[in-house]
Design a protein that fits this description.
With 370 residues, the chain is α/β, with parallel strands linked by helices. It has two domains: 1-110 and 265-370, Isopropylmalate Dehydrogenase; 131-260, Isopropylmalate Dehydrogenase (3-Layer(aba) Sandwich). The chain contains twelve helices and 14 strands. The strands form three sheets. It has a ten-stranded mixed β-sheet, sandwiched between helices. It has a two-stranded antiparallel sheet with strand order 6-7. A two-stranded parallel ribbon has the order 13-14. Strand 1 (5-12), helix 1 and strand 2 form a beta-alpha-beta unit. The two termini are 17 Å apart. The chain binds nicotinamide-adenine-dinucleotide.
Length: 370
């Protein structure tokens, strides 16, 4: 039996807990069918934490998150908490986790499952077999740069200011994550910023090049302006393997790539930080979607994005790539068999509930994983 792996589960609000219930069944499956034991802990974040403690995350939960191998988060937010001050809204719980754990590399895979090629807005031949990884810098850049604010210049004129700023260590650490990934995949990395019009972009480009030449000569690095990358993503997305980009452009490019794959209900993500003195990399895994209050509590949510987020945890935090592959294959097979939750429903397919989708994935795991 392998040593225990610690996982903190934060289901959150809305459909978060429903999706997480299905994930827990997959975790149980892994324990029973693979020589692995997870130390599971579960706690509150977002609106659920506000209701109990008055704040979107407690210091105790942040400390727990600091001390586990991985955090798996459902989703936060909902209309019940919409009128709260920005400083205590559910989303602040999520932002605090990202900040306190210094999760600077956001991994957003865009994989198009064969069974869902018709759900993409692009032609099937453009997205069939698509498998891209976008690495977005998550803790720096224009969303955090100083000075920032809105100033009154008098005479009815106001000025809004944000600052795009990156230091070499910030660029190096996210570049290393992207190069490592490219090395394990197809060996190709495209760095996307606006080096033509922004000094921070020039620095980014130069520093990514240095890391590539000195530490990852086996990875083929190229550079693309971020606006061109947006065009290329919708013109010929399969040209990409791994993309590394800053916080602002990554926000846009990762959402653009996500839509190539069909539905929000299918998209996992990972946010990674530094490796600590025990060799453990800080990590949080979560679906891209929100708490979907419009369908919460109705057994309608697609649990696949959260299940695939757990698969990413197996791959990137627990060094269990075969088990991660197994979950992804099980999902692919269930979709190929015609089962669909409402968000990915198509003509001729069988519309199923959240729990039925969970049942089907477990049955498939039994079939292919034993
Ligand atoms: P959303 O992602 O929650 O929902 C957008 C649409 O997609 C909805 O129609 C929803 O029903 C559907 N959808 C999303 N996930 C689905 C799934 N797994 N299965 C089936 N359908 C799904 O985004 P929103 O409506 O803009 O936001 C709702 C709440 O979630 C807000 O409070 C928002 O602040 C919060 N939010 C949280 C996160 C997060 O926790 N990371 C991310 C985005 C939004």
């Amino acid at each position: 039996m392998a040593s225990n792996k610690s996982l903190l589960i934060l289901p959150g609000d809305g459909i978060g807990p429903e999706a997480m219930t299905e994930v827990r069944r997959v975790v149980d499956w892994m324990e029973h069918n693979r020589a692995v034991k997870f130390d599971l802990d579960e706690d509150l974040v977002g609106g659920a934490s506000i209701d109990k403690h008055g704040i979107p995350i407690t210091d105790e939960v942040v400390e727990k998150a600091q001390n586990v191998d991985a955090v798996l988060l459902g989703a936060v937010g909902g209309p019940k908490w919409d009128n709260l001050d920005f400083s205590v809204k559910p989303e602040r719980g999520l932002l605090r986790l990202r900040k306190d754990l210094e999760l600077y590399a956001n991994l957003r895979p865009a994989i198009c499952f064969d069974a869902l090629v018709d759900a993409s807005s692009l032609k099937p031949e453009l997205v069939s077999g698509l498998d891209i990884m976008i690495v977005r810098e998550l803790t720096g850049g224009v969303y955090f740069g100083e000075p920032r604010g809105i100033e009154d210049l008098g005479n009815g004129v106001r000025r809004g200011v944000n600052t795009q700023v990156y230091t070499t260590p910030e660029i190096h650490r996210v570049a290393r994550v992207a190069f490592e990934l490219a090395k394990k995949r197809d060996g190709r990395l495209v760095s996307c910023v606006k080096a033509n019009v922004m000094e921070s972009g020039v620095l980014w480009r130069e520093e990514v090049t240095i890391i590539g030449e000195t530490e990852f000569p086996e990875v083929e690095l190229s550079h693309m302006y971020a606006d061109n990358a947006a065009m290329q993503l919708v013109r010929a997305p399969k040209q990409f393997d791994v993309i590394v980009t800053d916080n602002l452009f990554g926000d846009i490019l990762s959402d653009c790539a996500a839509m190539l794959t069909g539905s929000l209900g299918m998209l996992p993500s990972a946010s990674l930080g530094d490796v600590d003195e025990h060799g453990r990399r800080k990590a949080m895994y979560e679906p891209v979607h929100g708490s979907a209050p419009d369908i919460a509590g109705q057994n309608l949510a697609n649990p696949i994005a959260t299940i695939l987020s757990y698969a990413m945890a197996l791959r990137y935090s627990f060094d269990m790539p075969e088990e991660a592959d197994l979950i992804e294959t099980a999902v692919q097979n269930v979709l190929a068999g015609g089962m669909r939750t409402a968000d990915i429903m198509a003509e001729g397919m069988a519309k199923v509930a959240t729990t039925t989708m969970g049942d089907a994935i477990l049955r498939e795991l039994d079939k292919i994983g034993n």
